[in-house]
Amino acid sequence: MSQTILLFTEKITNRIHYIFDFILCYFSGIDYKTTTDFNEFNQSDLPKINFSNQFLDEEINLEVDDILIENEIRSSINYNSLHEVGKCFYWLSRYEEYNSPKENFDKHNRFLGSDLDYSQPIVDIICYEIQAKIKAKYPELNFKQRVFKQINTHDVDYAWKYLHHSQKIKFGSIGKKLIKGNLAEFKQQFNVLNRKQKDPYDTFDYLKNLAQKHQIETIFFWLLGDYSTFDKNHNWENKEQQKLIKEISTWAKIGIHPSYQSNNDNTLLTTEINRLQIITNSDVKLSRQHFIKLQLPITYQQLLINQISEDYTMGFAHKIGFRAGTSTPYKWFDLTTNQQTLLTIYPFVAMDVTLKNYLKLTPKEAIQELKSLKQTIKNVNGTFITLFHQSNLNEEWLEWRKVYESIFND
Known about the structure:
Domain DUF7033: 86-164
InterPro entries: DUF7033 (IPR054297)
Helix content: 25-40%
Low-confidence stretches: none
Protein name: DUF7033 domain-containing protein
Radius of gyration: 24 Å
Shape: elongated
Distance between the termini: 37 Å
CATH architecture of the largest domain: Alpha-Beta Barrel
Strand content: 5-15%
Order of helices and strands: EHEHEEHHHEHHHEHEHEHEEEEHHEH
Pfam families: DUF7033
Organism: Algoriella xinjiangensis
């Protein structure tokens, strides 16, 4: 039997091509071609899907929603009125983020979510349901075998707490501790600066050992913006930091962590990417926004202009779960241009700061949540991506090493 499906639709649009590219080609490994000629469809010997609002007794019928045949972005949509393919498009295109009210965004303009259920990868589940319909009618048709994958990602907002700062920052920090009487912190800083104690944010060897022991793909996103209220990293020209980045690039991937400021000044993104390229002497293709600041479509459009091909920002700062309704990396569709783009989105499902600071979970509770999320993704053979800051594994975060280590368990 042919591994190509013939799709009948009364109107061929970019949105229809995009969503079936995902469902059939990318997710299922099946080729397809479209036709608006009912006679061609009726007479074809190929496996067939009727994607229209006329029901055909002998065929697989999937209903089409208006959002797939129009070009505009509506001000509101009743999600529950959508059919399965329309729901997939709604999730992947992030349609809801274009027309959500202001109360669905926080003070940093980050999407808080709506009343939708983000606890399940609904798009992946729907894709398997569609596969089941196809398989029931065409049992000889074979879908590709999806394989569970895990990617551990780390945002480096600052490489060290005390080491390798400028003299001004170093002595200013020491002075503040003495004035406030923080003798314990003063002693710690003194010991670190005199190399009697390891810098508390220097957990890179710990992360390296775990990654290599378990053979898990690992990515570090490095903040190289200029110092500001929300960007408190080391200067990008810091030689020790440059040395560290080069060393880590020998065993992990390195991506850019665009600064908070770069969201308001597009030229800064280009500058920061160029800085990382100078340090690594290689093209920068991976990114995740600092503060999870993702504003559609502007953020992704700017990444494409700067030739970023993979972005890992798709997730929540305030909650865990599936912001785009999937655990499958996918191509971004720009609703404003009505085009599929070359940018691949890698959704993450949980961040350390979310678990501890926003959800107020204990380490034990966080372990259970991550275990559940990982199993949910295994059930659909998706990609399990977490976000842990390398600076959040010591001091008041020390117990969270158990949480981090738990994600390596089956």
